[in-house]
Every structure is written in structure tokens, then in C-alpha cells.
Amino acid sequence: MGKFKLDEIDHQILDILIDNTRTAFTDIAKKLLISAGTVHVRVKKMEDAGIIKGSSLTLDYKKLGYTFIAYVGIYLEKTHQTKFVLERLNDIPFVTVGHITTGKFNIFCKIRAKSTENAKEIIFSIDDIDGVSRTETMISLEESINDKKRLMHHIFSEI
Fold it and tell me: Fold match between 8-57 and 68-140?
């Protein structure tokens, strides 16, 4: 499929859905002064083109007791162990994000924990994975930027 062309209405629909993926198409339609059918057709086209992939739910981990965030850089003994280590990391529910990286670390991941003691246990369990030679941990003091819209608006301005 060729490059999908987005217009201003598509941009506005995406803008609303990024804020709240559960916004009813009828509410979007009222806000944009278009029909709910138009919203439905446009969202369906963006899904079919792969621009919209599913929808997600954002949890407030603080309210659930998981206030501690850390980033763990993982050094592997051998790079061919990457897949195996990622599979083991996937078994640890506190590892919420994982990236294969270039540079200093082979794998870089984000963990969420209830406390420093809980984080220590998680990091030790990562260290215990066969193939991990060592880890380096950075504690997040605050998530200061988490804006899904800024990049989207920049992309739209380039189109």
C-alpha cells in the first residue's frame, strides 16, 4: 500500500483519540462538526493503513502502589544471548519496556516497583539471568515529559 494521506480532519481525530482512546465517535463528530459515520470511516481507513494500531489503556501506577521507576542497562556476556535474555525479561512482570540497543548496553529496560527494596529484588533477578554479565541502574526521580502529541503534531506539520 502506498503512503496514506492524512488531512486536517484525520489529524483532529487522532488528536482527540490520543487524549482518550475511549472517546465515542459521536462525541468526536460533534466536536468536529462532522458525522459519526465519517469518523468511523476515517478511523477504519487509518487502522487498515496501519497508522492506528489497536488502542491502549493508561494505568496510574502510583495509585496502584508502583511509584518506583528505574531504567536498567544490561550488559550481555555474548550478543547471541539477546533473544534468550529478552525472553527471560519478558517473564518478569515488573519489566515494562525493553529495547535492544547499540552503544553501552545490549539491552535497556524500564522497571516499575513498589519500593527500593522491591526494585533491588527485581534488579537481582535480572542479574541472575544466564547470559547477563552485569547491569547498570538509573533511578527515575520524576517523569517530566510523556507527551504523545508533540511528535504527532510535528509529523503533521511536515506532511
Answer: no
